[in-house]
Amino acid sequence: MRSTMQNVPLLTSRLIDYAGTVYPGSEVVTWGADGPRRSSFTDVAKDCRRLANALRALGVDGDQRVGSFMWNNEEHLELYLGVPAAGAVLHTINIRLFPQQMVYVVNHAEDKVVFVDNSLAQPFAALLEHTPLVEHVVVNGPVPDEVREALAGGGRRSVHDYRTLLDAQPDTFAWPELDENDGTLMCYTSGTTGNPKGVVYSHRSNLLHATFCAGSNALGLSQSDRALAIVPLFHANAWGLAYAGMMSGASLIMPDRFLQPEPLVRMIEGERVTCGGAVPSVMTGVLDYLDAHPEADVSSFDRVIIGGSACPPALLDAFHERHGVSVLHGWGMTETSPLGTVAIAPVGAEGEEYWNYRHSQGRLALHVETRLVGADGAEQPWDGVAVGEIQVRGPWVTGSYYRDDSEEEKFEDGWLRTGDIGSLTPDGYLTISDRVKDVIKSGGEWISSIDLENALMGHPAVHEASVVGVPDTKWGERPLAIVVPVEGESPGVEELRDYLQARVARWQVPERWAFVAEVPKTSVGKFDKKALRSQYAEGTLPVVEATKTPS
């Protein structure tokens, strides 16, 4: 028997029309040097239709790629919504990639039109010499004549002003009836060796994912929320926050380029932010600022989802205990749209059990089917003890990379091999113990670099800590701990070793230590362990050897 339900495709154009009609009181607030500027969801919806007309005028009449080289602001959100609704595909260019990687992704995606913020126009102009397929550059905001000339490349490209381009168009547009499996957004993952890999989301995958993101088992968004979108729109589908906000009527606070702790706290105070999303390094800076400025009023700030890399339990506990903010630990990756889990404890959990749930990566989402595969290829049980590689599949999980078959080993019988090692409890809570490439293989046993990092960052004199495996003649590999002390503190090696010995197995405690002013980060704010291993091999890390050996 077939159902009697109507077969209406899930399309982003429905989201624009819905949010612009039923949530006229919700707004998009973009932070600026002179304070915030505001637009209602109704105004944003009108601009999305003007944008669709403008794209047609620029010759974008199918699924051509439209690039964005922008911060989180209203205009970038309008691209997020309007470009796919018009039938094209938005390619969000990660502004923190190396220049040669940016050139590669623009050419690989075959971007025809690129939208760029005026604060980024000058560095972007330097890339255009190597991107011959770009025909139009649309600048958001004024730029000096010499920058405009550089963008034009001697007349090879047309340069437009965003506001002027849209204001010349009507705010009505007949959205095309598209296949819900057509592409909407492209993100390139930066966590691979070689060239970045392209992931193409669909209308269907993005709307399904946004439903989970907005739901009570994730951020729990409603029209009474004011969500601070710190996670970049160019990173991992913005964690679904852009679409989830429009879907639920939650006002979106866009920080633009003002991502330092002080302006972020000012946004929370001034805009009465209730929730948000960010990577651990950003929220560590916010925590430090709040601790140093007890007069800051963040009483409206109820919850924040932290992902991108493992959130240290000490960071989660500190926000809860000192500032009343609930940190929701999440797990995912560019390839999973990205949310796969969120750590909300089940009903009835109390005491230590409650915090064990909260400190995990969280419970699996309905549409993220998961299995654990051990080193021998056998599937592992969900008993909270057995460890294996996390493999997933589902309607918002990619099944391939765009125009790239060089990583076929990433996919196995329809499952995505995430490269994360972890365990699952019988009730579906995931705990990540490491990345396959970062786990430390010492004397035939595995050491979790994440466990060591989390333990170290619980020490009151440690601001940040990263752990990598380095060669050892006796054990094969041993952990090297790289520590950033709290300002004004100088913890010693033996002090930190004694601290760790009470929290991890004695044989896992590092002998090699380095104290640095800053741990290098990747383009998405994760610890750059590849760089740390290279620095160790080159002898540029100030390594201190402990006087005791593991037992």
- What would you report as the Rg, rounded to the nearest angstrom? 24 Å
- Please mark out the parts with pLDDT under 50 across 5 or more consecutive residues, or reply none: none
Find the structural class using helix and strand composition.
alpha/beta
Number of helices: 16
CATH architecture annotation of one domain: 3-Layer(aba) Sandwich
Please estimate the helix content.
25-40%
CATH superfamily of one domain: ANL, N-terminal domain
Classify the fold: give the CATH topology of one domain.
Rossmann fold
CATH class group of one domain: Alpha Beta
Which band does the percent of strand residues land in? Answer: 25-35%
N- and C-termini, Cα separation = 66 Å
- Strand segment tally: 28
Mean pLDDT: 94
What about the largest sheet? 15 strands, mixed
Overall geometry? globular
Describe the structure.
There is one protein chain. With 551 residues, the protein is an alpha/beta fold. Among the domains are: 12-202, Rossmann fold (3-Layer(aba) Sandwich), CATH 3.40.50.12780; 363-435, Luciferase, Domain 3 (Luciferase, domain 3, Roll), CATH 2.30.38; 440-545, ANL, C-terminal domain (GMP Synthetase, Chain A, domain 3, 2-Layer Sandwich), CATH 3.30.300. Helices cover 30% and strands 26% of the residues. It is built from 16 helices and 28 strands. The protein has a 15-stranded mixed sheet that branches. A hairpin with a 6-residue loop joins strand 14 (326-332) and strand 15 (339-342). The longest helix has 17 residues, at 41-57. The mean pLDDT is 94.
